[in-house]
Amino acid sequence: MHHDEMIGKVQALARLPDRGSAERAAQAVVTTLSERLPSGLARHVAAQLPPDMAAAMRQVADVSGAYDSGTSRERFGLTAFAGRIADRAGTDEDMALREAAAVMEVLDAALAPELTERMATALPADIRELLPVIRASDYTGAG
């Protein structure tokens, strides 16, 4: 999936007023997601994203690359996840959750299914709930 297509889908799914808002949302979510995922996994996700979206994810993943043990770099739940996205996107936490759900749905469609599965199992249950309903229900026992 190309960058413009991804941003257009984020804009539509999150009901954002313009592409700039969708860009900010996408960058905020992928950056925050990369802080929560193991660095190696974040790099694999970034490898399947358009360069503009991958850059933020790689930058965060590369910070911990030298000492990545395969576990999450940072442990935080949905409240902190939403707060970080809200700060980065310049919005409130309710809107941040709507934006995160939209970006996660776009990522689900853009990534190879096995990579989405790995990402889902690496996330805690409360953040995993932002994944599309069918995918998220497959992992309710994991985490």
Quick rundown:
By secondary structure, the protein is an all-alpha fold. The chain has a single domain, classed as Uncharacterized conserved protein DUF2267 (Globin-like), CATH 1.10.490.110. The chain has nine helices and no strands.
Instruction: Give the CATH class.
Output: Mainly Alpha
Proportion in helices: over 70%
Oligomerization status of the protein chains: single chain
CATH superfamily: Uncharacterized conserved protein DUF2267
* Total beta strand runs: 0
Report the β-strand fraction as a percent range.
under 5%
Which characteristics define this entry?
single chain; 143 residues; mainly alpha; Globin-like; 71% helix; globular
Can you describe this structure?
The protein has 143 residues and is mainly alpha-helical. The chain has one domain: Orthogonal Bundle (Globin-like), CATH 1.10.490. The chain starts with a helix and ends in a 6-residue tail after the last helix. The relative contact order is 0.16. The mean pLDDT is 87.
